[in-house]
Design a protein that fits this description.
Blueprint: E1 7-11, H1 16-27, E2 32-36, H2 49-53, H3 74-81, E3 84-86, E4 89-95, E5 100-105, E6 111-115, E7 118-121, E8 125-127, E9 140-142, H4 146-158, E10 163-167, H5 171-182, E11 186-191, H6 202-214, E12 218-221, E13 225-231, E14 234-240, E15 245-247, E16 250-253, E17 257-259, H7 262-266, E18 290-292, E19 299-300, E20 307-308, H8 313-328, E21 342-346, E22 349-355, H9 358-363, E23 368-376, E24 386-394, E25 400-407, H10 412-423, H11 428-432, H12 448-460, E26 466-467, H13 469-477, E27 482-486, H14 490-495, E28 503-504, E29 524-528, H15 533-544, E30 550-553
Parallel strand pairs: 1-2, 1-7, 2-3, 7-18, 9-16, 10-11, 10-16, 11-12, 26-30, 27-28, 27-29, 29-30
Antiparallel strand pairs: 4-5, 5-6, 8-17, 13-14, 14-15, 19-20, 21-22, 22-25, 23-24, 24-25
Helix pairs in contact: 1-8
Protein backbone atom coordinates (compact mmCIF):
# COMPACT_ATOMS: atom_id res chain seq x y z
CA UNK A 1 0.00 0.00 0.00
CA UNK A 2 1.32 3.44 -0.94
CA UNK A 3 1.38 6.16 1.70
CA UNK A 4 -0.98 9.11 1.32
CA UNK A 5 0.39 12.17 -0.53
CA UNK A 6 2.22 14.80 1.50
CA UNK A 7 -0.08 17.74 2.34
CA UNK A 8 1.63 21.12 1.87
CA UNK A 9 -0.05 24.45 2.63
CA UNK A 10 1.54 27.76 1.66
CA UNK A 11 0.26 31.05 3.11
CA UNK A 12 1.17 33.98 0.88
CA UNK A 13 1.11 34.23 -2.91
CA UNK A 14 3.51 37.01 -3.80
CA UNK A 15 7.12 35.82 -4.20
CA UNK A 16 8.44 33.33 -1.63
CA UNK A 17 5.18 31.37 -1.38
CA UNK A 18 4.67 30.58 -5.08
CA UNK A 19 8.38 29.81 -5.45
CA UNK A 20 8.26 27.30 -2.58
CA UNK A 21 5.10 25.72 -3.97
CA UNK A 22 6.47 25.47 -7.51
CA UNK A 23 9.80 23.98 -6.35
CA UNK A 24 7.99 21.43 -4.19
CA UNK A 25 5.82 20.41 -7.12
CA UNK A 26 8.84 19.89 -9.37
CA UNK A 27 10.31 17.55 -6.78
CA UNK A 28 7.09 15.68 -5.96
CA UNK A 29 4.34 15.25 -8.56
CA UNK A 30 1.98 13.64 -6.08
CA UNK A 31 2.07 16.04 -3.11
CA UNK A 32 -1.12 17.96 -2.32
CA UNK A 33 -0.23 21.67 -2.47
CA UNK A 34 -2.57 24.51 -1.48
CA UNK A 35 -1.66 28.17 -1.84
CA UNK A 36 -3.63 30.74 0.20
CA UNK A 37 -3.49 34.34 -1.05
CA UNK A 38 -5.32 37.30 0.46
CA UNK A 39 -4.91 39.51 -2.63
CA UNK A 40 -6.69 38.87 -5.94
CA UNK A 41 -3.37 38.45 -7.79
CA UNK A 42 -0.60 35.88 -7.56
CA UNK A 43 3.17 35.93 -8.01
CA UNK A 44 3.30 39.66 -8.74
CA UNK A 45 6.49 41.30 -10.05
CA UNK A 46 6.29 44.05 -7.44
CA UNK A 47 9.66 45.58 -8.33
CA UNK A 48 8.13 46.45 -11.70
CA UNK A 49 5.34 48.57 -10.21
CA UNK A 50 7.13 51.95 -10.52
CA UNK A 51 7.85 51.33 -14.20
CA UNK A 52 4.21 50.44 -14.88
CA UNK A 53 3.11 53.61 -13.09
CA UNK A 54 5.62 55.69 -15.05
CA UNK A 55 4.45 54.31 -18.40
CA UNK A 56 7.63 52.41 -19.27
CA UNK A 57 5.18 49.66 -20.26
CA UNK A 58 1.37 49.68 -20.39
CA UNK A 59 0.21 46.06 -20.18
CA UNK A 60 -0.61 45.36 -16.53
CA UNK A 61 -0.54 41.62 -17.20
CA UNK A 62 3.22 41.86 -17.72
CA UNK A 63 3.45 42.10 -13.92
CA UNK A 64 1.74 38.76 -13.32
CA UNK A 65 2.73 36.56 -16.25
CA UNK A 66 5.39 33.97 -16.92
CA UNK A 67 8.35 34.60 -19.29
CA UNK A 68 6.18 32.87 -21.91
CA UNK A 69 3.45 35.47 -21.39
CA UNK A 70 0.94 33.28 -19.52
CA UNK A 71 -0.89 35.05 -16.69
CA UNK A 72 -0.27 33.40 -13.32
CA UNK A 73 -3.87 33.10 -12.16
CA UNK A 74 -5.51 30.23 -10.21
CA UNK A 75 -6.27 28.44 -13.48
CA UNK A 76 -2.59 28.58 -14.48
CA UNK A 77 -1.51 27.21 -11.09
CA UNK A 78 -4.07 24.41 -11.34
CA UNK A 79 -3.39 23.40 -14.95
CA UNK A 80 0.37 23.96 -15.21
CA UNK A 81 1.46 23.12 -11.67
CA UNK A 82 -1.47 21.24 -10.08
CA UNK A 83 -1.45 23.71 -7.19
CA UNK A 84 -4.77 24.72 -5.64
CA UNK A 85 -4.48 28.52 -5.45
CA UNK A 86 -7.14 30.16 -3.27
CA UNK A 87 -7.18 33.90 -3.97
CA UNK A 88 -9.10 36.55 -2.01
CA UNK A 89 -8.72 34.13 0.87
CA UNK A 90 -7.15 35.03 4.21
CA UNK A 91 -5.46 32.58 6.56
CA UNK A 92 -6.80 33.58 9.97
CA UNK A 93 -5.42 30.90 12.32
CA UNK A 94 -2.90 28.07 12.55
CA UNK A 95 -3.60 25.12 14.84
CA UNK A 96 -0.19 23.49 15.29
CA UNK A 97 -1.60 20.59 17.34
CA UNK A 98 -4.30 19.64 14.83
CA UNK A 99 -2.03 20.77 11.94
CA UNK A 100 -4.72 22.82 10.23
CA UNK A 101 -5.02 26.32 8.81
CA UNK A 102 -8.32 28.17 9.14
CA UNK A 103 -8.92 30.37 6.12
CA UNK A 104 -11.74 32.73 5.24
CA UNK A 105 -12.99 33.68 1.79
CA UNK A 106 -13.10 37.48 1.90
CA UNK A 107 -16.13 37.96 -0.36
CA UNK A 108 -18.46 35.36 1.22
CA UNK A 109 -17.03 35.14 4.73
CA UNK A 110 -17.07 31.35 4.44
CA UNK A 111 -14.41 29.58 6.52
CA UNK A 112 -12.76 26.22 5.97
CA UNK A 113 -10.02 24.14 7.57
CA UNK A 114 -7.08 23.12 5.40
CA UNK A 115 -4.96 20.30 6.88
CA UNK A 116 -1.20 20.23 6.43
CA UNK A 117 1.78 18.00 7.03
CA UNK A 118 4.15 20.88 6.29
CA UNK A 119 3.29 24.56 6.29
CA UNK A 120 4.94 27.63 4.75
CA UNK A 121 4.36 31.14 6.06
CA UNK A 122 5.14 33.82 3.48
CA UNK A 123 2.90 36.59 4.74
CA UNK A 124 5.15 39.44 3.65
CA UNK A 125 5.10 42.87 5.22
CA UNK A 126 2.85 45.91 5.65
CA UNK A 127 3.87 49.46 4.71
CA UNK A 128 4.70 51.70 7.66
CA UNK A 129 2.66 54.90 7.93
CA UNK A 130 3.41 58.12 9.83
CA UNK A 131 1.27 58.41 12.97
CA UNK A 132 0.09 61.95 12.21
CA UNK A 133 -3.29 63.67 11.62
CA UNK A 134 -4.97 63.39 8.22
CA UNK A 135 -3.88 59.91 7.13
CA UNK A 136 -7.51 59.09 6.20
CA UNK A 137 -7.69 61.75 3.48
CA UNK A 138 -8.28 60.69 -0.12
CA UNK A 139 -5.14 61.13 -2.20
CA UNK A 140 -2.70 59.40 0.17
CA UNK A 141 -1.23 56.18 -1.21
CA UNK A 142 1.45 53.57 -0.62
CA UNK A 143 3.12 51.40 -3.28
CA UNK A 144 3.05 47.88 -1.93
CA UNK A 145 0.34 45.91 -3.71
CA UNK A 146 -0.68 45.60 -7.34
CA UNK A 147 -3.85 47.45 -6.33
CA UNK A 148 -1.65 50.35 -5.21
CA UNK A 149 0.11 50.29 -8.57
CA UNK A 150 -3.25 50.26 -10.37
CA UNK A 151 -4.42 53.30 -8.39
CA UNK A 152 -1.25 55.29 -9.09
CA UNK A 153 -1.27 54.30 -12.77
CA UNK A 154 -4.87 55.53 -13.01
CA UNK A 155 -3.80 58.87 -11.50
CA UNK A 156 -1.07 59.10 -14.12
CA UNK A 157 -3.45 58.28 -16.96
CA UNK A 158 -6.10 60.77 -15.79
CA UNK A 159 -3.46 63.53 -15.99
CA UNK A 160 -5.17 65.73 -13.39
CA UNK A 161 -2.63 65.74 -10.55
CA UNK A 162 -0.02 68.49 -10.86
CA UNK A 163 1.88 68.28 -7.54
CA UNK A 164 2.88 65.30 -5.44
CA UNK A 165 4.86 64.63 -2.28
CA UNK A 166 6.73 61.38 -1.70
CA UNK A 167 7.30 60.66 1.99
CA UNK A 168 10.53 58.69 2.40
CA UNK A 169 13.88 59.04 0.64
CA UNK A 170 14.72 55.37 0.20
CA UNK A 171 14.80 53.18 -2.91
CA UNK A 172 11.04 52.94 -3.39
CA UNK A 173 10.57 56.63 -2.69
CA UNK A 174 12.85 57.64 -5.53
CA UNK A 175 11.54 55.01 -7.94
CA UNK A 176 8.08 56.51 -7.32
CA UNK A 177 9.53 60.01 -7.69
CA UNK A 178 10.86 59.17 -11.15
CA UNK A 179 7.58 57.50 -12.15
CA UNK A 180 5.58 60.59 -11.16
CA UNK A 181 8.08 62.86 -12.87
CA UNK A 182 7.66 60.84 -16.09
CA UNK A 183 3.94 61.54 -15.77
CA UNK A 184 4.59 65.27 -15.69
CA UNK A 185 3.82 65.63 -11.97
CA UNK A 186 5.99 68.06 -9.99
CA UNK A 187 7.33 65.94 -7.13
CA UNK A 188 9.01 66.70 -3.81
CA UNK A 189 10.62 63.95 -1.74
CA UNK A 190 10.60 64.35 2.05
CA UNK A 191 13.22 62.51 4.11
CA UNK A 192 13.22 62.73 7.91
CA UNK A 193 16.94 61.98 8.29
CA UNK A 194 19.74 64.28 7.13
CA UNK A 195 20.54 62.29 4.00
CA UNK A 196 18.59 60.46 1.31
CA UNK A 197 19.20 56.79 0.56
CA UNK A 198 20.49 56.06 4.09
CA UNK A 199 22.37 52.93 2.97
CA UNK A 200 24.78 55.25 1.10
CA UNK A 201 27.49 57.27 2.76
CA UNK A 202 26.55 60.98 2.85
CA UNK A 203 29.01 62.25 0.21
CA UNK A 204 27.74 59.65 -2.30
CA UNK A 205 24.10 60.33 -1.38
CA UNK A 206 24.75 64.05 -1.89
CA UNK A 207 25.84 63.41 -5.49
CA UNK A 208 22.64 61.44 -6.13
CA UNK A 209 20.57 64.26 -4.62
CA UNK A 210 22.26 66.77 -6.96
CA UNK A 211 21.37 64.56 -9.92
CA UNK A 212 17.73 64.25 -8.83
CA UNK A 213 17.38 68.01 -8.40
CA UNK A 214 19.00 68.57 -11.80
CA UNK A 215 16.21 66.46 -13.28
CA UNK A 216 13.52 68.74 -11.86
CA UNK A 217 12.43 66.97 -8.67
CA UNK A 218 12.88 68.55 -5.25
CA UNK A 219 14.24 66.99 -2.05
CA UNK A 220 13.80 68.16 1.53
CA UNK A 221 15.94 66.39 4.16
CA UNK A 222 16.00 66.62 7.94
CA UNK A 223 12.26 67.14 8.02
CA UNK A 224 9.41 64.72 8.69
CA UNK A 225 5.68 64.92 8.09
CA UNK A 226 3.71 66.60 10.89
CA UNK A 227 0.27 66.29 9.27
CA UNK A 228 -1.62 65.70 6.06
CA UNK A 229 -3.94 68.64 5.39
CA UNK A 230 -7.16 68.41 3.41
CA UNK A 231 -10.27 70.08 2.08
CA UNK A 232 -13.60 68.26 1.71
CA UNK A 233 -11.95 64.94 2.60
CA UNK A 234 -9.22 65.22 -0.02
CA UNK A 235 -5.51 65.89 0.44
CA UNK A 236 -4.49 69.49 -0.27
CA UNK A 237 -1.08 69.80 1.40
CA UNK A 238 1.56 68.11 3.51
CA UNK A 239 2.71 69.96 6.62
CA UNK A 240 6.32 69.39 7.69
CA UNK A 241 7.84 69.31 11.17
CA UNK A 242 9.22 72.82 10.68
CA UNK A 243 5.76 74.18 9.82
CA UNK A 244 6.24 74.41 6.05
CA UNK A 245 3.16 73.45 4.05
CA UNK A 246 3.64 71.84 0.63
CA UNK A 247 0.50 72.07 -1.55
CA UNK A 248 -0.21 68.79 -3.34
CA UNK A 249 -3.02 66.60 -4.61
CA UNK A 250 -1.14 63.32 -4.13
CA UNK A 251 1.11 61.86 -1.43
CA UNK A 252 2.88 58.51 -1.66
CA UNK A 253 4.21 57.12 1.62
CA UNK A 254 7.35 54.97 1.30
CA UNK A 255 8.97 54.91 4.75
CA UNK A 256 9.59 51.17 5.07
CA UNK A 257 7.67 48.03 5.98
CA UNK A 258 6.76 46.01 9.07
CA UNK A 259 6.87 42.18 8.92
CA UNK A 260 3.45 40.50 9.00
CA UNK A 261 4.04 38.24 11.99
CA UNK A 262 0.57 38.23 13.58
CA UNK A 263 -0.40 34.78 12.33
CA UNK A 264 2.93 33.26 13.38
CA UNK A 265 2.86 35.02 16.73
CA UNK A 266 -0.66 33.80 17.49
CA UNK A 267 0.49 30.26 16.67
CA UNK A 268 3.27 30.57 19.26
CA UNK A 269 6.20 30.64 16.85
CA UNK A 270 9.41 32.37 17.94
CA UNK A 271 9.86 35.97 16.80
CA UNK A 272 13.42 37.31 16.46
CA UNK A 273 15.00 40.40 17.96
CA UNK A 274 14.59 42.33 14.70
CA UNK A 275 10.83 41.76 14.70
CA UNK A 276 10.67 39.06 12.04
CA UNK A 277 9.89 35.35 12.32
CA UNK A 278 12.98 33.45 13.52
CA UNK A 279 14.17 30.73 11.13
CA UNK A 280 17.21 28.47 10.87
CA UNK A 281 19.41 27.86 7.84
CA UNK A 282 16.78 25.46 6.45
CA UNK A 283 14.20 28.28 6.75
CA UNK A 284 12.41 26.32 9.50
CA UNK A 285 10.63 28.17 12.27
CA UNK A 286 10.63 27.04 15.90
CA UNK A 287 8.10 24.40 14.77
CA UNK A 288 9.99 21.85 12.59
CA UNK A 289 6.94 21.35 10.35
CA UNK A 290 6.51 25.07 9.64
CA UNK A 291 8.80 27.07 7.36
CA UNK A 292 8.81 30.83 6.70
CA UNK A 293 10.36 33.09 4.07
CA UNK A 294 10.33 36.54 2.54
CA UNK A 295 9.64 39.91 4.08
CA UNK A 296 8.19 38.39 7.28
CA UNK A 297 11.41 36.65 8.42
CA UNK A 298 14.83 37.50 9.75
CA UNK A 299 17.99 36.21 8.13
CA UNK A 300 21.71 36.37 8.83
CA UNK A 301 24.20 38.97 7.62
CA UNK A 302 27.07 37.15 5.92
CA UNK A 303 29.38 39.99 6.96
CA UNK A 304 28.58 40.49 10.64
CA UNK A 305 26.79 37.23 11.51
CA UNK A 306 24.01 39.31 13.08
CA UNK A 307 20.30 38.87 12.43
CA UNK A 308 18.89 41.34 9.92
CA UNK A 309 15.79 41.90 7.83
CA UNK A 310 16.09 41.89 4.05
CA UNK A 311 12.68 42.61 2.48
CA UNK A 312 13.69 42.18 -1.17
CA UNK A 313 11.99 40.21 -3.93
CA UNK A 314 15.12 38.36 -5.04
CA UNK A 315 15.87 37.19 -1.49
CA UNK A 316 12.27 36.01 -1.09
CA UNK A 317 12.60 33.88 -4.22
CA UNK A 318 15.90 32.36 -3.07
CA UNK A 319 14.44 31.52 0.32
CA UNK A 320 11.28 30.10 -1.28
CA UNK A 321 13.37 27.78 -3.44
CA UNK A 322 15.24 26.47 -0.37
CA UNK A 323 11.95 25.81 1.41
CA UNK A 324 10.44 24.09 -1.62
CA UNK A 325 13.28 21.59 -1.63
CA UNK A 326 13.19 21.03 2.13
CA UNK A 327 9.45 20.40 2.06
CA UNK A 328 10.07 17.32 -0.06
CA UNK A 329 13.66 16.46 0.90
CA UNK A 330 14.12 17.78 4.46
CA UNK A 331 17.45 19.34 5.44
CA UNK A 332 18.97 19.16 1.96
CA UNK A 333 18.99 22.90 1.18
CA UNK A 334 20.13 25.91 3.19
CA UNK A 335 19.94 29.68 2.86
CA UNK A 336 23.13 31.03 4.46
CA UNK A 337 22.26 34.72 4.57
CA UNK A 338 22.53 38.06 2.80
CA UNK A 339 25.07 40.73 1.91
CA UNK A 340 22.37 43.40 1.46
CA UNK A 341 22.96 43.94 -2.25
CA UNK A 342 20.60 46.35 -3.97
CA UNK A 343 20.28 48.50 -7.06
CA UNK A 344 17.86 51.03 -8.47
CA UNK A 345 17.48 53.40 -11.39
CA UNK A 346 17.01 57.09 -10.59
CA UNK A 347 16.57 59.05 -13.82
CA UNK A 348 19.71 58.22 -15.85
CA UNK A 349 21.77 57.31 -12.79
CA UNK A 350 22.09 53.83 -11.38
CA UNK A 351 22.56 53.51 -7.63
CA UNK A 352 23.99 50.22 -6.37
CA UNK A 353 25.27 48.92 -3.05
CA UNK A 354 26.48 45.72 -1.46
CA UNK A 355 27.65 45.07 2.07
CA UNK A 356 28.25 47.79 4.66
CA UNK A 357 28.63 51.51 4.12
CA UNK A 358 31.56 53.17 5.87
CA UNK A 359 29.17 54.71 8.36
CA UNK A 360 27.55 51.34 9.14
CA UNK A 361 30.91 49.59 9.44
CA UNK A 362 32.24 52.15 11.92
CA UNK A 363 29.03 51.99 13.95
CA UNK A 364 29.50 48.21 14.19
CA UNK A 365 33.02 48.66 15.52
CA UNK A 366 35.06 47.77 12.43
CA UNK A 367 38.44 49.46 11.93
CA UNK A 368 38.16 50.31 8.23
CA UNK A 369 39.82 52.03 5.32
CA UNK A 370 37.85 53.41 2.39
CA UNK A 371 38.56 54.45 -1.18
CA UNK A 372 36.46 56.82 -3.27
CA UNK A 373 37.13 56.44 -6.99
CA UNK A 374 35.77 58.28 -10.04
CA UNK A 375 36.28 57.04 -13.57
CA UNK A 376 34.73 55.77 -16.77
CA UNK A 377 33.09 52.38 -17.11
CA UNK A 378 34.59 51.85 -20.60
CA UNK A 379 37.18 53.87 -22.57
CA UNK A 380 36.34 57.41 -23.61
CA UNK A 381 36.71 56.48 -27.27
CA UNK A 382 33.86 53.99 -26.72
CA UNK A 383 31.71 56.76 -25.18
CA UNK A 384 32.39 55.64 -21.63
CA UNK A 385 30.18 56.96 -18.85
CA UNK A 386 31.00 58.09 -15.35
CA UNK A 387 31.10 55.82 -12.30
CA UNK A 388 31.71 57.07 -8.76
CA UNK A 389 32.22 54.49 -6.04
CA UNK A 390 33.22 54.03 -2.42
CA UNK A 391 34.79 50.74 -1.33
CA UNK A 392 35.14 49.70 2.31
CA UNK A 393 37.70 47.20 3.66
CA UNK A 394 38.77 45.99 7.07
CA UNK A 395 42.15 47.53 7.86
CA UNK A 396 43.79 44.56 9.60
CA UNK A 397 42.79 41.84 7.13
CA UNK A 398 42.06 43.73 3.91
CA UNK A 399 38.70 41.91 3.72
CA UNK A 400 36.17 43.71 1.53
CA UNK A 401 33.19 44.82 3.63
CA UNK A 402 31.18 47.03 1.31
CA UNK A 403 30.87 48.88 -1.97
CA UNK A 404 28.56 51.59 -3.27
CA UNK A 405 28.58 52.76 -6.85
CA UNK A 406 26.58 55.43 -8.67
CA UNK A 407 26.48 57.15 -12.04
CA UNK A 408 25.22 56.86 -15.60
CA UNK A 409 27.75 54.10 -16.34
CA UNK A 410 27.38 50.32 -15.96
CA UNK A 411 27.00 50.04 -12.20
CA UNK A 412 25.29 46.66 -12.01
CA UNK A 413 28.17 44.37 -12.95
CA UNK A 414 30.57 46.24 -10.64
CA UNK A 415 28.24 45.80 -7.67
CA UNK A 416 27.67 42.15 -8.63
CA UNK A 417 31.44 41.55 -8.74
CA UNK A 418 31.99 43.00 -5.27
CA UNK A 419 28.90 41.23 -3.89
CA UNK A 420 30.50 37.90 -4.78
CA UNK A 421 33.82 39.06 -3.34
CA UNK A 422 32.08 39.79 -0.04
CA UNK A 423 30.25 36.46 -0.26
CA UNK A 424 33.60 34.72 -0.68
CA UNK A 425 35.29 36.80 2.05
CA UNK A 426 37.88 38.03 -0.45
CA UNK A 427 40.44 40.73 0.28
CA UNK A 428 41.34 43.83 -1.69
CA UNK A 429 44.47 41.98 -2.85
CA UNK A 430 42.22 39.24 -4.28
CA UNK A 431 40.07 41.85 -6.03
CA UNK A 432 43.09 43.83 -7.21
CA UNK A 433 44.35 40.76 -9.12
CA UNK A 434 40.94 39.56 -10.32
CA UNK A 435 40.79 38.08 -13.81
CA UNK A 436 37.70 39.95 -15.04
CA UNK A 437 36.42 40.10 -18.62
CA UNK A 438 38.05 42.88 -20.62
CA UNK A 439 37.35 44.34 -24.02
CA UNK A 440 36.88 48.06 -24.79
CA UNK A 441 33.09 47.82 -25.35
CA UNK A 442 32.69 46.39 -21.81
CA UNK A 443 35.49 47.59 -19.54
CA UNK A 444 38.75 49.39 -19.11
CA UNK A 445 41.90 47.26 -19.05
CA UNK A 446 41.83 47.78 -15.29
CA UNK A 447 38.16 47.64 -14.37
CA UNK A 448 36.67 50.19 -11.99
CA UNK A 449 36.44 47.54 -9.25
CA UNK A 450 40.11 46.62 -9.65
CA UNK A 451 41.16 50.28 -9.54
CA UNK A 452 39.13 50.75 -6.35
CA UNK A 453 40.97 47.80 -4.80
CA UNK A 454 44.33 49.23 -5.93
CA UNK A 455 43.58 52.62 -4.34
CA UNK A 456 42.60 50.89 -1.10
CA UNK A 457 45.78 48.82 -1.21
CA UNK A 458 47.91 51.95 -1.75
CA UNK A 459 46.25 53.60 1.25
CA UNK A 460 46.74 50.56 3.50
CA UNK A 461 50.41 50.32 2.50
CA UNK A 462 50.96 54.02 3.23
CA UNK A 463 51.65 54.89 -0.42
CA UNK A 464 48.76 57.35 -0.51
CA UNK A 465 47.10 59.49 2.10
CA UNK A 466 43.53 60.17 1.01
CA UNK A 467 41.09 62.83 2.12
CA UNK A 468 37.38 62.81 1.36
CA UNK A 469 35.55 65.64 -0.40
CA UNK A 470 33.58 66.17 2.83
CA UNK A 471 36.80 66.62 4.81
CA UNK A 472 38.16 69.05 2.21
CA UNK A 473 34.94 71.07 2.40
CA UNK A 474 35.26 71.18 6.20
CA UNK A 475 38.88 72.34 5.90
CA UNK A 476 37.91 75.12 3.50
CA UNK A 477 34.86 76.24 5.51
CA UNK A 478 36.85 76.36 8.76
CA UNK A 479 39.71 78.33 7.20
CA UNK A 480 42.24 75.57 7.88
CA UNK A 481 45.86 76.29 6.97
CA UNK A 482 46.16 74.02 3.94
CA UNK A 483 47.57 74.52 0.44
CA UNK A 484 45.27 73.16 -2.28
CA UNK A 485 46.55 72.28 -5.74
CA UNK A 486 44.45 71.56 -8.83
CA UNK A 487 46.68 69.41 -11.06
CA UNK A 488 44.49 69.55 -14.18
CA UNK A 489 45.22 71.44 -17.39
CA UNK A 490 44.47 75.16 -17.83
CA UNK A 491 41.64 74.30 -20.24
CA UNK A 492 40.00 71.95 -17.72
CA UNK A 493 40.37 74.67 -15.07
CA UNK A 494 38.73 77.18 -17.37
CA UNK A 495 35.80 74.88 -18.12
CA UNK A 496 35.08 73.79 -14.54
CA UNK A 497 36.60 74.77 -11.22
CA UNK A 498 35.78 74.43 -7.55
CA UNK A 499 36.74 77.89 -6.29
CA UNK A 500 37.99 76.75 -2.88
CA UNK A 501 41.21 78.76 -2.85
CA UNK A 502 43.06 76.27 -5.01
CA UNK A 503 46.23 76.97 -7.02
CA UNK A 504 46.39 75.63 -10.56
CA UNK A 505 49.64 73.72 -11.08
CA UNK A 506 49.21 71.15 -13.87
CA UNK A 507 50.92 67.83 -13.19
CA UNK A 508 53.32 68.28 -16.09
CA UNK A 509 54.50 71.63 -14.70
CA UNK A 510 54.77 70.57 -11.06
CA UNK A 511 58.48 69.68 -10.91
CA UNK A 512 59.38 73.10 -12.36
CA UNK A 513 57.19 75.01 -9.91
CA UNK A 514 58.19 73.44 -6.59
CA UNK A 515 59.35 76.87 -5.44
CA UNK A 516 55.70 77.99 -5.34
CA UNK A 517 54.84 75.38 -2.71
CA UNK A 518 54.91 76.00 1.06
CA UNK A 519 58.45 76.17 2.47
CA UNK A 520 57.20 74.36 5.56
CA UNK A 521 57.47 70.70 4.55
CA UNK A 522 54.96 69.74 7.32
CA UNK A 523 52.18 72.00 6.04
CA UNK A 524 49.13 70.18 4.75
CA UNK A 525 48.95 70.04 0.96
CA UNK A 526 45.80 68.72 -0.77
CA UNK A 527 45.91 67.74 -4.45
CA UNK A 528 43.20 66.75 -6.89
CA UNK A 529 42.36 66.46 -10.58
CA UNK A 530 39.28 65.30 -12.46
CA UNK A 531 39.30 61.82 -10.88
CA UNK A 532 42.51 62.16 -8.77
CA UNK A 533 44.85 59.83 -10.66
CA UNK A 534 47.01 62.87 -11.52
CA UNK A 535 46.50 64.00 -7.94
CA UNK A 536 47.95 60.70 -6.70
CA UNK A 537 50.92 60.85 -9.05
CA UNK A 538 51.56 64.49 -8.12
CA UNK A 539 51.44 63.60 -4.43
CA UNK A 540 54.15 61.00 -5.01
CA UNK A 541 56.33 63.69 -6.66
CA UNK A 542 55.93 66.05 -3.69
CA UNK A 543 56.71 63.29 -1.21
CA UNK A 544 59.88 62.50 -3.15
CA UNK A 545 60.96 66.14 -2.70
CA UNK A 546 60.39 66.08 1.05
CA UNK A 547 56.85 67.27 1.69
CA UNK A 548 55.45 65.01 4.39
CA UNK A 549 51.79 66.00 4.81
CA UNK A 550 50.48 65.47 1.29
CA UNK A 551 46.90 64.27 0.72
CA UNK A 552 44.87 63.32 -2.34
CA UNK A 553 41.23 64.38 -2.55
CA UNK A 554 39.61 61.09 -3.45
CA UNK A 555 37.33 60.99 -6.49
CA UNK A 556 38.52 64.42 -7.66
CA UNK A 557 36.28 67.07 -9.15
CA UNK A 558 33.78 64.41 -10.29
CA UNK A 559 33.10 63.41 -6.68
CA UNK A 560 32.63 67.00 -5.43
CA UNK A 561 28.93 67.30 -4.47
CA UNK A 562 29.04 70.91 -3.25
CA UNK A 563 28.56 74.21 -5.12
CA UNK A 564 31.36 75.12 -7.53
CA UNK A 565 32.67 78.45 -8.73
CA UNK A 566 32.22 77.35 -12.34
Amino acid sequence: MSSSPLKIVVIGGSAAGPKAAARARRLDEHASITLIQKDPDLSMASCGYPYYIGGVFDDRNQLICTPAGIVRDPNFFEKAKRIDALVLTEAVAIDRTAKTVTCRHLASGDERLVPYDRLVIATGATPLFPQVPGTDLAGIHTLHSLGDADALRAIRDQNQVRRAVVVGGGLIGFEVCEALHLAGIQTTVIEKTDSILPFLDPEIAHLVANHIRANGADIITGNGVAAFLGEHGRLSAVKLDNGTELPCELAVVAVGVRPNIGLAQAAGLTIGEQGGIAVDAYMRTSDPDIYAAGDCVECTSLITGRKVRAPYGDIANLQGRVIGQNLIQPETATFPGVTHTGICKIFDYTVGITGLSARQARALGYDIETATVSGLDIPGYMQGKLLISLMVAERATGRVLGFQCIGPGEVSKRVATVAMAIRGRLTIEDLGNADLPYAPPYSLALDHVIVSAHVLENKLRGLMQGISVAEVKQRVDSGADCFIIDTRTPQEFEDLRLGIGETLIPQGALRGRLNELPADKEREIILYCKISLRGYESAAILQAYGWRNVKVMEGGVMAWPYPREK
